Every structure is written in C-alpha cells, then in structure tokens.
Prior knowledge:
The chain is 46% helix and 6% strand. It is mainly alpha-helical.
Amino acid sequence: MLRYTLTPLVGLLMLPITLRIMFAPCPLPEQFGRNFPRLMMLRPWQLPASLGDGAVMRQSAAELKRGYGALQVPTFIAAGGDDCIVIPSQSEKLHQDVRGSELQIIRGVGHMVQHSAPDHVAAVVHRVIGTMADGVPPTPQHGALPLENCALSLSLCRTNHA
C-alpha cells in the first residue's frame, strides 16, 4: 500500500510548503517549527483520517451553520487579513451569521492567527474573561479593552501587526 511507503515520503517533502502556506505571509514561528510533531501527522493511519476530514469539511460546515443562530455564548472571530485558506469574506459571513459575535480581521496575518498574532488573541480572551467575571456581557460595547492595553500575552511568537 502506498500509505505505508510513498505517501509518507511525499508528505514529508511537501510539509514545509504546506506550513509556509498556512503561516504566510508570516514566517513559521521558531517554537512551532521546533515543537510541531511532523512525523506524527505522516503516520500511515493518520493520512487517510486527515484526508477524510478534509473531504467532509464543507458538508460539515454547512450542517453546523444551521445552529449558529442559537449560539448564546461570547463569540470572537479572529481572521488573518492575508489568509489564503479561509479568506476574510468567509469570516465576515460567519460574523453575520453568529448574533452578537465580534470579528477582527488582522492585517498582515495568514491562517495561523493564534501563532502569528498571539497578543491580539490573548487580549480578547483576557477581555472576555474579565467581563464575564464582572457579570457584564462580553460584547464590544461592554468592557472592551483596546488590544494594545492588554497585559496578557502568549509567547508563541513575537510579531507586531496593526
């Protein structure tokens, strides 16, 4: 079977390109590159599972969409302005479908927002947790902290994006 011989080798050769696309236009963070379990995702039994997930992703997303209107939890959507995997207009559509959601499209960032702009993501988490603890609904109108004033930070990579 190819999944035990050729496919893992091709996957290993293609992985640097795939990761560059996922992070573009940002560089691959050093810590991610050092700690990401490359070989685990190329195991012969993992490859068909990953391909299967990809094959049903659109159908699953369409089925989940029916429940967006019923969401009653704080929802923040962070999207990379230069994401070529999930283009920003898809995130804008999700924002329209999820009542009370907050959307931030971060310029100069690709698909891996949580790694390329961790301070932005951490600031929102900090704000949401803070407003929930105060009993105030975590919406952009209540308790919104400017992202640059938030002290909470993740140390995955350090890049500054406007």
